[in-house]
Every structure is written in structure tokens, then in C-alpha cells.
Amino acid sequence: MKKRINYIVLILLIIMSLNSCATVKPYEKMNINDPDMKLADRKSKKFHTACQVYREGASGGNGGKTGGGCGCN
Amino acid sequence: MKIIILSFVVFLPFSIFAQQSADSTLFQKRALETTELSILTSFYTQDGKNAAVTGGIGSEQLDDYATNISVSIPVKQNGVLSIDGTVSAYTSASSSNLNPWSSASNGDDDDNNPWSSASNGDDDDDDDNYGTGINTGTPWAASSGASLQDVWINFNPGYSHYSNDRNTIYSGNLSISNEYDYFSLGGGVGLVKLFNKKNTELGIKGNVYLDNWRPEYPTEIKTYIENNLDLNSSFFQGIDILDQSGNVIDKLSSDVWKASQNNLIDNNNRNTFSVTLSLSQIISKSTQISLFSDLVYQTGWLANPMQRVYFADKDNFYIGNASSIPIYTDESNKDVFQLADDIERLPNNRWKIPIGFRLNQYFNEYIVLRTYYRYYFDDWGIQSHTIDVEFAIKIGRKFTIYPNYRFYTQTEADYFAPYETHLSTDEFYTSDFDLSKYNTNQLGLGVKYTDIFTKSHIWEFGLKSLTLDYNYYSRTTGLKAHIISFGADFVID
Description:
The structure holds two protein chains of two kinds. By secondary structure, chain A is an all-alpha fold. Chain A has helices at residues 2-17, 46-55. The longest helix of chain A is centred in the first third of the chain and has 16 residues, at 2-17. The relative contact order of chain A is 0.09. Chain B is mostly beta strands. Chain B is 6% helix and 46% strand. Chain B contains four helices and 21 strands. In chain B, the strands form three sheets. In chain B, strands 1-2-3-4-5-6-7-8-9-14-15-16-17-18-20-21 form a 16-stranded antiparallel β-barrel. Chain B has a two-stranded antiparallel sheet with strand order 10-13. Chain B has a two-stranded antiparallel sheet with strand order 11-12. In chain B, a hairpin with a 3-residue loop joins strand 2 and strand 3. Mean pLDDT of chain B is 87; it is low at 10-25 and 103-133. At the A-B interface, helix 1 and helix 2 of A face helix 1, strand 1, strand 2, strand 5 and strand 6 of B.
């Protein structure tokens, strides 16, 4: 467990340090601003995600419930 | 060394402030231009053969109707107030079997025993059986007691405040949930910073849930413990208990059914603390990615007191029809139920760490690819991988279809074992197949209608979009589910 956490912290460090400084200008963001490009689950899948949380051992990491709110896993 | 690395991770993002260039905007748009209303309703149905309430075997049939209403209201120039409410009503064969037996046979008044007719569904039979003391129940069908159905209600108000340059967003929310055996009170705060002309977004959020069980237990366990281990009082009065051979036991002898432990829940609390970190980055004019991770700690009574466990090293005892004992684990068993050895017991703390990654790619004006991957692990032994791929395919100016596929795989929890496998000497045990080893496949299709100019109106509400989503979910444990959702988004003129 501790070894796994250290490994993940190291990966996060590497990714953050590679954070690109290249910028896309506001007037070039037409494609990025498409509603389907949003970096989150579609709102209409709220209950689909909730059902996955209820039925699976894993939760969180996707904008859904991380824990609490119900007696489920 | 670990402290140094963790400190660097925490403080590195704030060093990026130096790269931020000042935005100069002459015109200030409101954080939210107009009030928005979203309504989402869904129907979910599942079935399987590994119900946790009946110890890892039995019907998992469940139907759920849920509706969510969400309103976002602009507050002056820089604020957004959101109010979110959900009502979810379910019926479940599994939870109905907290008491799978009829109350008529032991002469109890219905006012004293809230659980009524069992799965034979025939009150006349129950009355006929009164003199013989026969009760019937089965893990393979729902009983008609009060625990057959329930309503979960959630209320979630929140507020977000945007800085004038829109590069900083502060947020806070409350969460209140209630169902018949569980109450939850939660809250959270969040901070989002945007950099590099809004090409980079860094977020941190903290949540706390202070929850309480109002525990419901399997009838036999609760009655046994609350009546000082007496097998001749309350629910057990006048009821024959059978051994594995179908013989009626002498309740005053030493060779009788006993619950493995003589205590129920000793701590009703169930608390969750979580921190979420997120990083989003625009890679190019058509590609953006995000990385996010949660650190979740749960403490309190983390097991479900409704869920039975049967031990391999304990004799089996039943209530019902003796001739059905040999076929107990088969769906053809209609009229015998095995007394539990204990309720599920799990550690009183748990660490969970999911790490997720999203990549969205805009190919052209017709196709967008949305991908998601998550790795999850916890200190209960569960590791899982999730892959989700979805296409957004635009058809004309108003319609978009979303074919999607999701694959999920997990290892089993250290404390899981199927029906009649655990030993009574184990400290922690569960037969909940949600914590077992399995893979899932989920196929789905969504359709969205967008009214770009909100020409259609219902009273003051201008229709922004309509969505319809369907998913089929299949688990290698045999659980299968369908869910269909319908949503409508409006803007208020």
C-alpha cells in the first residue's frame, strides 16, 4: 500500500512538472468549447454513474460520489 | 523523503501563479447569464442470484425510479446559487427478506410485526398453518413486508463565487440525505484556479459526510439478541426450527441455532472524509485532458447491518418446509429459509484512492471522442480498472447520438467469501457480491436534441435540450441491469 502511494505521488509529480505552457488563444478555442468536449460525465448520466457506485467496490475519481450519503460502498 | 515529495506536490501548483498573465477584459460577462433548470428522471431495474441480505444467494431483483431537479441561479455578477434535489423510490426483493417469513403463523398482531405475508402470497395458507407453527420464506422471492420498498431523498444546495477575471472559483455545498435506515449530513468546499489564459485548470475540493445508521437487522438475529437469546419468545414463539435433516429441534437443548455473536451495531456513525485534486490541460486546439485523484477515508460502522452471513463451520438451521432444505440454494425453493449465523462485519475504517484520467478529442464538426480511465485501490484489498469510451456524433444541427462502452474489473475484498464459506473464527466477513471479484460490460446509447435558440417554451422556460440515455449492464457474477434516463434542460427567460 505505501509503496503504491509513493509510486502514484511520483507519477503525479512528473505529470505536473510536464504541464505544458503552450496556450491556445481564446479565439482558437472553438472546438475546445464544444459542449461535448467538457471534461466531465454528461449530466444526463448522473443516475447511470450512481448505479455503478452502488453496485461496484470502487467509487470516486469520476465526479460521482466519493463516499457518504448512503449506506452503500 | 515522503514528506518532501508530498510537500512538493502540494506547493508546486501555487508556483504556477508566476506564469499567469493578466487577462484584460473590457466587457464582464456574468458568471451565469440566466437561470437554468434541469430535470432528469430514470428507471433502473436489475436481477441476479447473489443477494447480500440473504447471505450471497437469492434474488437481487430491484427496481428504482429516480428524479432529480437542479436549478442554477445567477447571483449578481459573480455568483451562482445551485439547488439540487433527488427523490429515488425503490422496491427490492433482497431487502424485503429482512423478514422473509409470514407473521400470521405465530399469531402476532400485524401492529406488532410490520412484516406481513411471505412469498407464498396466500394469507389463507398462513392461517391454515397457524396450528402447525409452519412459516415459510425463501431467498428467491420477495416478501411483502415494509422493507420491500423505500424512498431515498437528497437535498444539495451549493454556491460558487467567481473572481472578476474568472480565473478563481470558490465553491461550497451542503448535502442532506435520508432513507428509512440511514441519514446523511455532508458539506464541502472547493477552489479552482485557471492559468495560462485558461488553458490550465487546477482544482482542490474537500468533502465531509457525517452519517448515521438507523440499523435494520435480519429478523432472526435481532429477535434472538434483543430477547436474551430466547428461542421461545417474540418471533420464535410457536415456530418450529429445523436442522439440516429437516428434524424439528428441541429449543431447550444445547444443540440449537445460535447467532454467532450476541451484539448488534455498537456505533451508529459512518463518516467519510475526502480530498479531491484535479488538473485539466488544453493540449491543442482539439485535444484536452484531465487528471484527478481522490483521497477518501471512511470510519465508523462500514458494514451493512441488513446483510446476512452463513459460516461453513456452523450447523445449518431453517424455518419452513423441511422437504425444500435439499434444494435451498436452488430457485425452485419456495418455502424454506435458513437462519443466519451473523450479520456482515467489516473493519471500522477504510482508505480509498481512485485516480482518473480523461482525454477528449475533437475530430471534426461531426465527431468527438470522450475517453475515461480510472485506477482504484483501497486497504480492503480491492483494486479495479475502469475504461469508458464514448463518441458524440452530431447528426444535423439539432441531434447528437452517444454510443458508449464501459469495461470494469475488480479484485475481491479481503473479507469477501460466498455463501457458506466464511469461518466463525474470522474477525471480518461479508458475502456481498459487490465486493467480490468480477468484470462488467456496459453498452449504451444516448440521444440529445438541442434547441440552440430555445425557441420552444413551456411557460417561462425555454427548452435548451432533451436527452434520452439507455445502458445495459452485465456483471460476470450474473447480475444484469438496465437503466433508462430522460432529461430536459431549460433556461428561464
